[in-house]
């Protein structure tokens, strides 16, 4: 906005696929970008750390499938590609863990002092292991005050797997389910 050009923002490719071809598409995009920001939308983004794709879940999935997971677009640089992919992977892990432990997502993210939440720690370990998301981001997502606690949760899950074969079998089943869904 405001006439400032960002070299990393490559929108022509998206315009040609999603909007109008050629100069009309570029002008339509420029007019869209010059519009006044929606105050309600600004408040939404100020309140939470949300993804950058707006729309219902079907639309987000369609865009994600088209531009992020499609093999033909891997060679093109799409801003935030990695972050969006990590977010999808985290959601997938959380769904699998919730299903396995028969929990709601809100219960998975909730910590209760003095009570073990194995599912929460398993989800944290799988996210850390399979997505490459930083401990700080995982701590924010799960409301953990200290990012070092994330490493400690991962260590505890590894120790539990070393001494409890039944737990190890369950953990490996989750891991393999995750690989099949990828």
Structure in a nutshell:
With 182 residues, this protein is mainly alpha-helical.
Question: What characteristics describe this protein?
Answer:
0% strand, mainly alpha, 182 residues, 10 helices
Written description of the protein model:
Helices cover 67% and strands 0% of the residues. It has helices at residues 12-18, 22-34, 39-47, 57-67, 81-101, 105-109, 118-131, 135-142, 147-163, 165-181. Helix 7 crosses helix 9 (147-163) and helix 9 (147-163) packs across helix 10. The relative contact order is 0.07. The mean pLDDT is 77.
| Helix residue percentage | 55-70%
Helix count, DSSP H or I runs of 4 or more residues: 10
Relative strand content: under 5%
State the major sheet.
none
C-alpha-based Rg, rounded: 20 Å
Low-confidence stretches: none
The topology string of helices and strands comes to: HHHHHHHHHH
Q: What class would the helix/strand composition place it in?
A: mainly alpha
* Bulk shape: elongated
Q: How many beta strands in the DSSP annotation?
A: 0
Distance between the termini: 37 Å
What's the rounded overall pLDDT mean?
77
């Amino acid at each position: 906005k405001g006439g400032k050009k960002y070299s990393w923002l490559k929108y022509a490719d998206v315009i040609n696929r999603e909007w109008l071809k050629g100069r009309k598409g570029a002008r339509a995009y420029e007019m869209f970008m010059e519009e006044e920001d929606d105050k309600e939308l600004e408040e939404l983004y100020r309140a939470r750390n949300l993804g950058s794709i707006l729309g219902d879940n079907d639309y987000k999935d369609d865009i994600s499938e088209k531009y992020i997971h499609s093999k033909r677009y891997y060679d093109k640089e799409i801003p935030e590609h990695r972050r969006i992919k990590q977010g999808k992977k985290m959601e997938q892990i959380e769904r699998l863990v919730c299903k396995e432990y028969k929990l709601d997502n809100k219960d998975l993210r909730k910590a209760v002092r003095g009570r073990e939440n194995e599912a929460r720690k398993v989800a944290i370990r799988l996210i850390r292991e399979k997505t490459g998301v930083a401990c700080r981001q995982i701590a924010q997502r799960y409301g953990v005050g200290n990012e070092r606690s994330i490493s400690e949760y991962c260590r505890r899950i590894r120790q539990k797997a070393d001494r409890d074969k039944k737990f190890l079998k369950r953990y490996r089943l989750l891991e393999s389910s995750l690989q099949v869904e990828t």
